[in-house]
Amino acid sequence: MTTKKPEQTPENPSRREFLGSTATASVLSALAAAGYTQESKAATPLVASGASGLGKSAPQAPFDSLRDWTAAMEAHGLLMRFDRIDQDEYEIPALFFNATDMYTMYGAPCMMFDKVKIEGKWVDGPVLINTQGHWNCDAIIWNLPVVPGDHYATYRSAVAYIEKVFADNDGELPEIAPVEVKRSKAPVKEVVVTGDDIDINKFAFVKTNPADAGRYVNTGSHFMVDEELGANFGTYRAQIKGPRKLGINPEPNQTGYKMLMAARDRGETSVSYSIVLGQDPVVWMLSGTRLAPRGFGKTPKPADELAIAGGLRGKAVEVVKSENTDIMVPAHAEMVIEGTVDLREETFEPEGPFGEMFGYLGPVKEKNFVMTIDTITHRKKPWFMNAMTGMQRGYVTSGIDAAYSISLRNQIPQFVAYTNPQDTMGIVVLSIDKTGPGQGIKSGMAIAKRNPIAKIVIVVDKDINIYDRTDVMFAIGSRWQPDPASEIISETLGLMTDPSQVKYARTSKIVIDATRQLPGEGGKAEFAKTNRELLKAGAPDSFARAKEAFGEALENWKRV
Fold first, then answer.
1. Would you tell me which of 279, 424, 502, 527 could form a disulfide with 284, CB atoms 3.0–4.6 Å apart?
2. Domains observed in the chain
3. pLDDT tens for residues 139-172?
């Protein structure tokens, strides 16, 4: 079954108006028709069997392509599909905001749109959003079991798995070198477009929000090779400025920026590289995180991320050479854009604004790099992934949580668990097994001083579920005393996309010790136990008895 788009849409609504409009009611009806209702306990897949390469039998990890991954999402009930959607009326973000309002950022499904209306024309997709947003993706990507009805347990198992991968490889990530395949075996080489035949505008790249500067290629992995810094790929947004022109935005702290500037410092006037779109899920995850070393610690240069992707997958990534350079790119990608970036400052152009990861509109970059597109290769009917930046969890995060947890465990003897929630950017949560005074503040400061994202560091006791926002707020409300269980840093390194910053990449921070305060730090001689703790202690069998007797009634209750 494919959900049909409503025939009528409102005329030029604002985003606020659209969220309450008839069109939005219609797409919410589509959510309900697919089984995604506020009364639903579990999502029901919306399946279009066999269409666009999707079939009923789903592949398992390792996934070689975006299409394999999408089929797995479908099989796990995490894919919604629509035949068409009008992005001239900004129906994609409105629909997705409604989905996250209903199911949270970590509970919303992947969505697929076969045709998208862009600048008055219906453009063939499909366009995919939220491809790695759901909690369960962290298990599916590694072929781990999904714990029915318990997203937290599912996520914890994924974090534990990656921690074990590190442990089994002496603290490093495993590597399997990529394997080059013939062009005839590389789907991304099915179509080759060069020179003036190129028109990036004809593909299904969208303007996500009305305030964005334009349409963006915002899920590209920029594959670069520098003679001194080595090879690297990272995710940087690219504003479409013309048929063969892209505005490129690597930030100063990112490896891509350092590579471009290193070439410029050597006197080079341009750099040619490849932008890969429609990556397999592990390559996409590595592209947007610092899970693979980027020239720090034991690795003097950026690590071979394609080899790390192969190691994590347990299977080599198949690659093929770019058309205009020796840069190797994933053979099963959907598209590769090859181009030349002019490094001369007089060629720089304004870029942005763009809706940033904090969920706010970012500033205009007055001078940014520009790429001239030389060649595009793609599958015959390419698929397109669009990042709903600031609205979605962009990639599976269990890997980076695991890596950071290993580092923190070496610094903090009382460490239990750590997370950097994507739906509350700027806040990180740490749980510890507290045994003495001062440990909460000390543990939080270890994070605040190192992590630019961590503007608010919340430290909780080990009985608090760090993934449950309500549980964390419960700890803050009932266990935290602002004085003395707080520490403020007046100015330090911050994330440049934080809209609250006055100085670029500089911020103040606070550590909140929401653990039970001990007498040695101003707390009570004996801290009261929670009602739940007392119930477990006084009637240990009550939970199991109640679940057996009344569990079915609870599961069948329709929320109102």
1. 279
2. 15-159 (no CATH), 172-380 (2.30.110.10), 412-528 (3.40.1670.10), 531-560 (no CATH)
3. 999 999 999 889 999 999 999 999 999 999 999 9
